[in-house]
Write a structure and sequence with these properties.
The chain is mainly α. The chain has one domain (about 1-140). It is about 50% helix and about 10% strand. Strand 3 (about 45), helix 3 (about 55) and strand 4 form a beta-alpha-beta unit. The radius of gyration is 18 Å and the shape is globular.
């Protein structure tokens, strides 16, 4: 699980789980729900569909793509509304996806063939390097 700011810069990268785990379960195990319920109401967290259900638990602080209201034979107007809302969410979340992509662009993660037990250390090391790189780049762009 990775958290980015609104510009797509990496803020947090969680350790890897030793086995397959649903996104929402991982968030609950890390205590994300407790942290978000204590955060200011103005804070909005854009998440993918793997976190649907956290919005109700965090007082609306987690925003996920919309659910489909009709599973079978939806009316045409419903499909149009759903598609419009899905695209709007996707447009707002694109910077988050770009931030995660920067992490995955590192060769050690893109071509990881090692043991899963060492993956967490690799992710944390690359996240630290990426954060340092983004901070250095941001500092170079600011006028002095």
């Amino acid at each position: 699980m990775a958290l980015t700011d609104s510009a797509g810069r990496l803020l947090f990268c969680s350790p890897a789980q030793p086995a397959s785990c649903a996104d929402i379960t991982h968030a609950r195990q890390l205590g994300l729900v407790k942290h978000l319920t204590g955060s200011p109401a103005a804070v909005e967290n854009l998440a993918d569909a793997g976190y649907q259900g956290l919005s109700a638990q965090t007082g609306g602080r987690v925003v996920t793509p919309p659910h489909r209201k009709f599973k079978k034979d939806p009316p045409e107007w419903s499909e149009e509304i759903h598609e419009h809302r899905r695209k709007a969410h996707s447009s707002r979340r694109i910077r988050v996806e770009h931030g995660i992509a920067h992490l995955k662009n590192w060769r050690a993660l893109a071509r990881h063939h090692g043991r899963r037990e060492h993956m967490s250390d690799t992710i944390q090391a690359i996240a630290g390097l990426l954060s340092h790189q983004q901070t250095a780049t941001r500092g170079a762009l600011q006028p002095q």
